[in-house]
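[audit] Reproducing an earlier prediction to check determinism. Same input, same settings, fresh worker. If the tokens differ from the archived copy the diff job will pick it up downstream; this log only records the rerun itself.
[audit] input (290 residues):
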Amino acid sequence: MYHTWMRFLTPSPVHHRLGLVCLGVGLQYGALPTVGPRTLDSHVAVVISTGTGWYETPDGRRTTVTAPSLLWLTPGIPHHYGPDPETGWDEGFVGFTGPATATYAELGYIEPDRPVVPLSDATGPRAVIARIARAARRDNPLLEVETGAAVHELLVALRRARADLAPDGDPVLKALARDAFKPMSVADHATRHGMTLAELRTAVRRGAGSSPKDYLLGIRLDRAKELLAATELPVSAIARRVGYDDPAYFSRLFTRRVGMAPIRFRAQESRTLPGGWSNQVPDPEDPPRV
């Protein structure tokens, strides 16, 4: 015996231009029927929260699926899977498509070559799927936008729940963030961690979806923007604070990546206040009072 609830959506061409659209959502549990062999034209994320089963690759190899796990169903790639007929499993699925899927795949959030992904905990992804299911009611005037926005959130939740990533963050990424403002090259960072350049690139790509250089640059420029907006420090001093001894090189780098010079960014975003700048994230529900 099994139970199934599902809903399919047809977003308009305008909604597709948002980057991601939800094509369907479902919640199922029990001794569900075998799926496939079949091939889809869109992506589907299947989150298995309880139970066991199997997944068969196009070449006939079977992989055991043990909850919590994620099944990636990728467009154009045949798939065949099912739960243990004796015990069944509990699954939630979301179908989606859009031009942003290519970028999410490049960043490692979608893994076409890894159809079965063990999760450390399915609670977060299941909560997002439940919100998509609630938003998919037919009388919801925000249906397409709300469900599409939630697909972005689901991809983040699935990335966070991956069993091969530490729940509190990758130690290598944490260390890079801690040392980001030191005048060190990527090779220096690799040596500091006892890694080759190739090993560091692999670790950062797996954890952050970018190269070490881009990861460090993002942290440095984010901090530079904060200092430009909230202080009256000269650009040369800010350059040194974020790890660049050459202010002219920093300005060129900032302009190329941000799209405007540091001085222009300051003119647009300056928020210099007598109270100063705090590194502590405030609680939006209980902001600090002076």
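[audit] rerun output stored. Observation attached for the diff report: Residues 143-161 form the longest helix (19 residues).
[audit] end
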